[in-house]
Structures are given as C-alpha cells and as structure tokens.
Amino acid sequence: MGNTIDQNFSYRAALEDIKATYHRQSERFLISRDIAKTILTSASVIVSVFGAFSSFREIISQPSLLKLSMIIAAGVFFALLVLTCVSLLFPSSFMGPIKASQETYEKEVFDKNEKDTILIFFSAYLNAVNKNEPKIRTRNKWVWTAGILLILVVVCLLAYTVII
C-alpha cells in the first residue's frame, strides 16, 4: 500500500509540474496581447505627435523628395505595424487541457482511481502544452516584428525631422 501512495504522490507532483507549465504558457499568451496593445498605443501617439504638427506643413512649405519618402516609409511601416498588432489582438486558438463540462468529467474521471485520474489530467495538460508551444513561439515572433516595425517608424520620423 505504501508503494501506491508513493506512486500517486509522484504522479501528483508530475501533474502539478505540467499544470505550472501550462499556466506559464497561458500567461505568455496573454502577455503577447498586452505587449501588442502597448506597441500599438505607443505607435499611435508617436505618429500623431510627429505627423500632425510638422510633417505636412514642412512638405508644403519646402517640397523635398527625401522628406516625402521618409513620410511615406513611416506610413508604410506604421500600416504594417497596425496590421501586426491587430492580428495579435484577435482571439487565437489557445488550447485548454480539457473541455470543462460535467459530461467530460463524468466520462474521464468518474469511477476511476486516483492514479488513473492523475494520469488522465497529466496527459490532457501535456497535450495542451505541446499543442500551444508552436502557437506561442509564432506569437512571440509577431511581437518582435511589431517592436521592429515601431523602431522603423520612429527612425523614419526622426530622420524626417533631421533632414533640412
């Protein structure tokens, strides 16, 4: 009997570990959305401040192809930035460990011993973690892309203000 208790403890420990991994994944998933919101807000403020107060006034008063090209480049990068951030804000298919319903619990857990129940949940969490990892990596790449686009927008607008 002591061996069964020890095994169940090991199974419970493994289940808690995979649950923690799943929860870290879900936090990373939500963080990528928050970062996208922050980048989009920052970009909007930057473009508004630089663009509204000086850009078109200077282009009209002192026509310059280089200045116009900087504004166009900043506009293109900004449009790409908005599309990238909006795609990160859309709901995505983040997989949960099990379908939370009474039917699922009755079918999967009811009348099972503790070891089998733990192994069922462990398998469900492990499956969710494995399926979510590529999605999280992709979202992180999009977050980095949004950050790079924000830097390009800022560089174009700064270059515009420096060009005399």
Structural overview:
The chain is mainly α and about 160 residues long. The protein has one domain (about 1-160). It is about 85% helix and about 0% strand. It has 4 helices and no strands. It starts with a helix and ends with a helix.
SSE pattern, N- to C-terminal? HHHH
- Total count of helical runs of at least 4 residues: 4
Low-confidence stretches: none
Distance between the terminal alpha carbons, to the nearest Å? 84 Å
Structural class: mainly alpha
- What share of residues is helical? over 70%
Query: Biggest β-sheet, characterized?
Result: none
Please tally the β strands and state the result: 0
Content of β-strand: under 5%
Radius of gyration: 25 Å
Average pLDDT, all residues = 78
- What does the overall shape look like? rod-shaped
Counting structural domains, the number is 1
Summarize the structure.
With 164 residues, this protein is mainly alpha-helical. It is 86% helix and 0% strand.
List the defining traits of the structure above.
rod-shaped; 4 helices; 86% helix; mainly alpha; 164 residues
Layout of SSEs?
Layout: H1 2-61, H2 65-89, H3 102-108, H4 114-162
Helix pairs in contact: 1-2, 1-4, 2-4
